[in-house]
Inverse folding.
């Protein structure tokens, strides 16, 4: 069986020169790669006590849902603004080139619930910080974060040093 890293296609100079783009779709389109990704991420947090899994649109849905299902936990959607039909809480945050807003249904996290955040990638940590802010605003407690890939050169781990962060693959650069 191949190593998880071998399923990731790295594309140099995308979206701009000097950047190596790590393509998650190459993992998803291979049945063994997808299974290995979910199993590896799940293994990283097997000792963690949590009540609910939360993940951002869209790749957090892909990896978070099977982890929630396998562990008989609910899955909570974190979406871009304007996509959820009921009452929401939202937070806006800065991106490298602009701003973004994410939201959750107001009733998706109950006070005191322990939350595991699942996503495909952590880079600077800005989106993850925004997710944590939403979860805590609803009274939840983030007990862990697990991602498929970490771009260590962008220092997201440092920004999230108060939280347990696990990555299945860690790339040293951008």
């Amino acid at each position: 069986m191949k190593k998880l890293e071998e399923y990731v296609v790295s594309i140099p100079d995308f979206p701009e020169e000097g950047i190596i783009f790590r393509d998650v779709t190459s993992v998803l389109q291979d049945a063994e790669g997808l299974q290995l990704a979910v199993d590896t991420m799940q293994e990283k947090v097997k000792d963690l006590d949590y009540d609910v899994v939360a993940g951002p649109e869209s790749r957090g849905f892909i990896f978070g849902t099977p982890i929630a299902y396998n562990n008989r936990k609910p899955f909570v959607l974190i979406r871009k603004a304007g996509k959820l039909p009921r009452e929401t809480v939202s937070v806006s945050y800065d991106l490298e080139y602009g701003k973004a807003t994410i939201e959750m249904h107001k009733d998706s996290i109950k006070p005191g619930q322990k939350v595991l955040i699942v996503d495909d990638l952590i880079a600077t940590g800005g989106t993850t910080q925004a997710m944590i802010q939403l979860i805590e605003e609803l009274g939840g407690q983030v007990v862990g974060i697990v991602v498929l890939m970490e771009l260590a050169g962008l220092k997201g781990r440092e920004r999230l040093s108060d939280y347990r962060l696990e990555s299945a693959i860690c790339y040293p650069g951008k």
